[in-house]
Design goal:
10% strand; 14 helices; alpha/beta; 375 residues
Length: 375
């Protein structure tokens, strides 16, 4: 992949990021709020599709444990925080550090999680998603419900908050993102990210092709019906987040802005919004440098295909310079993003007026990591 592709993604929080800070000043940080949508798709149970969770039996706990960690600094539904098979920590450690440093409040929306988190949360009362190989990712009624509930909730955030940062936690979500993008006619083949350094593109492509065959649809066959595309090849997170965003941006009495905090999964949300003719003027994508500079995917090209007007910003929490190997691994292609880590970091930097940067964020992340290892 040409290094030029990275020029479309603007850094935030470094000396070279004056351009980004000037552009993002239009994203008001008077009273921002962070929202994390947790969900589940049985697609993640396909062997070798995700690195989330220490073993397949723990995948169902990944999202609720992430949410609990944001509140408590530890988890209740499992004994330890979500980790990869060899012990690399959840990206929620970055998100929690950014939120604590900045004082940004947050809410958790449970939208089809297999396990309910032991925290105060907003529930959309949705079932988990199915394995999209079957061609039935979700019941269409549940997709519509997720979207409608999202619109209602988003309109409330628009009345009370200047900028809403929306993250997600759903293992296997880059595969369902590929499915949605493909059904909507966007060439996402070999462009979605992964929690692993060796991105399993062949497996992802095979899964999506099987789902399309079983649903009797072809590439781009659902361009005019994004909710049906989600029902066939998607997961409960996508319509929930799309609804929240639409509820925020369509409230004419509000000037609230949205940061979609994530990587290629948020590209699928963006594609659904574009297909629904949602206004996109007050929206951007915020991710980590680890996704933005991932040579096994191409977030910039995906987003540009959907809308040339959407800007992508990246934050670098400097984990490459950590003294802990588990944190250094993020910079080596493991985990990379999730739980809104990149967008939350960017919001923290903006809210602080630039006082929070990558070095400060690294120190806070290391403190969180040390606290975990001491328990």
């Amino acid at each position: 992949m040409s290094p030029a592709v990275f020029q479309d993604i603007v850094p935030v929080g470094e000396l070279s990021s004056l351009q980004a800070m000037k552009e993002l000043v239009s994203f008001p940080m008077v009273n921002p709020v962070f929202v994390c949508v947790i969900s589940y798709t049985a697609t993640c149970e396909i062997p070798q599709i995700t690195f989330a969770g220490a073993n397949p039996l723990l995948l169902r706990f990944t999202s609720p444990a992430d949410a609990e960690f944001l509140y408590y600094g530890h988890c209740k539904c499992i004994d330890k925080v979500p980790v990869t098979p060899d012990g690399k920590p959840t990206p929620a450690i970055i998100t929690r550090a950014a939120l604590r440093l900045s004082g940004i409040p947050f809410f958790v929306v449970e939208a089809g999680s297999k396990i309910k988190p032991s925290i105060p949360h907003i529930s959309f009362n949705l079932p988990p998603g199915n394995n999209i190989r079957s061609g039935i990712g979700l019941n269409i009624g549940d997709v519509k419900k997720a979207y409608e509930y999202g619109v209602i909730l988003g309109s409330q955030f628009a009345r009370t908050n200047s900028t809403v940062i929306i993250g997600e936690s759903i293992p296997g979500g880059t595969t369902t993102a590929l499915g949605i993008l493909t059904a909507l006619g966007i060439d996402a083949k070999n462009k979605t990210s992964s929690s692993m350094p060796q991105n399993p593109h062949d497996l992802k492509n095979q899964i999506v092709l099987e789902g399309m065959k079983n649903a009797n649809i072809s590439f781009g066959g659902l361009q005019g019906d994004p909710l049906k595309a989600v029902s066939i090849l998607g997961d409960p997170m996508v319509p929930s987040v799309a609804g929240i965003v639409n509820g925020i941006l369509r409230l004419t009495s509000s000037n609230a802005h949205v940061i979609l905090a994530g990587g290629t999964q948020m590209a699928s949300v963006l594609a659904v919004l574009k297909s629904m003719d949602c206004p996109l003027e007050r929206i951007c994508i915020g991710t980590t440098a680890y996704v933005a500079e991932d040579r096994s995917s191409n977030l910039a090209k995906l987003v540009k295909t959907i809308s040339a007007d959407i800007r992508i910003y990246k934050s670098d929490p400097h984990l490459a310079y950590s003294s802990y190997p588990g944190l250094q691994a993020f910079a080596r292609g493991y985990v990379k993003e999730g739980v809104g880590a990149g967008g939350a970091s960017i919001a923290a930097m903006l809210k602080s007026g630039g006082q929070i940067n990558g070095d400060i964020l690294l120190r806070e992340v290391e403190q969180e990591y040390y606290a975990l290892s001491s328990k």
